[in-house]
Design a protein that fits this description.
6 helices; 187 residues
C-alpha cells in the first residue's frame, strides 16, 4: 500500500508538470496515466490482501479494507470517465462516482480507525482519516473545476484549479502512505 500511494503521489506530481503545457508527448501523458492507475490499484489490491488475513474478530478491518479498496477503484473509474468523455454529462457522472467512492473510502477509514485504535493507537490514525479525505477532496476539486470551465471560468483558471486539486490529492497520497506504513508496523 505504501508503494502504491507513493506511486500515485509521483504520478500526480508528474501530472502537475504536464497539465496545461503544450507540446507534451503522448507517451508522457500515457505514462502519467498508467502510473496513476498503478498507484490507485496497488493499494486497493494490498487492502484486499490484508482483508483476507483478518480473523472474524477483526470486524473493522474485514469491512474497512474492502470499502477503502472500492473507494480507490471507484475513484480511478471516475477519473478515467472525466478524462475520456470530457463533456458536461461525463463530468457530472464522474462527480457522482467520485463522491460515492469518497463516501465508501471514508466509511472504510472510519472502520479501520476503530480497528487500529483497538490494536495500536497511533498518530497514523489522523493521517489515515485526513489522507483519505484529501485524496477525494482533490479529485472533487478537479471535477468541479472542469464543470465550472464549461460555464464560468477560463482555460487558465481551470488549469490552476485542476493543479490545486491534484496537489491536494498528492498530499493525501503521501499521508496515506505514511499512515499505512506506521499502522502496519505497529498493528
Amino acid at each position: 500500500m505504501v508503494a502504491g500511494y507513493s506511486t500515485a503521489a509521483a504520478a500526480l506530481v508528474a501530472f502537475l508538470t504536464i497539465n496545461g503545457a503544450s507540446g507534451i508527448p503522448t507517451a508522457a501523458t500515457i505514462g502519467t496515466a498508467v502510473l496513476l492507475a498503478i498507484g490507485l490499484l496497488l493499494p486497493a489490491a494490498g487492502m484486499l490482501q490484508l482483508r483476507s488475513g483478518q480473523g472474524p474478530t477483526a470486524r473493522g478491518a474485514r469491512f474497512g479494507y474492502p470499502l477503502q479498496a472500492l473507494g480507490l477503484v471507484g475513484l480511478l473509474f471516475g477519473l478515467v470517465l472525466i478524462v475520456v468523455t470530457a463533456t458536461l454529462s461525463g463530468y457530472l457522472v464522474g462527480a457522482v462516482l467520485i463522491a460515492t467512492s469518497g463516501v465508501l473510502a471514508m466509511s472504510g477509514a472510519v472502520l479501520l480507525r476503530g480497528y487500529y485504535v483497538a490494536t495500536a493507537a497511533d498518530a497514523g490514525l489522523a493521517c489515515l482519516m485526513s489522507g483519505t479525505a484529501l485524496i477525494f477532496l482533490g479529485a472533487g476539486a478537479v471535477v468541479g473545476s472542469n464543470i465550472a470551465f464549461e460555464y464560468l471560468i477560463s482555460q487558465v483558471q481551470n488549469t490552476v484549479y485542476v493543479d490545486a486539486g491534484a496537489t491536494v490529492s498528492a498530499c493525501g497520497c503521501v499521508l496515506l502512505a505514511y499512515a499505512f506504513f506506521v499502522l502496519h508496523n505497529r498493528g
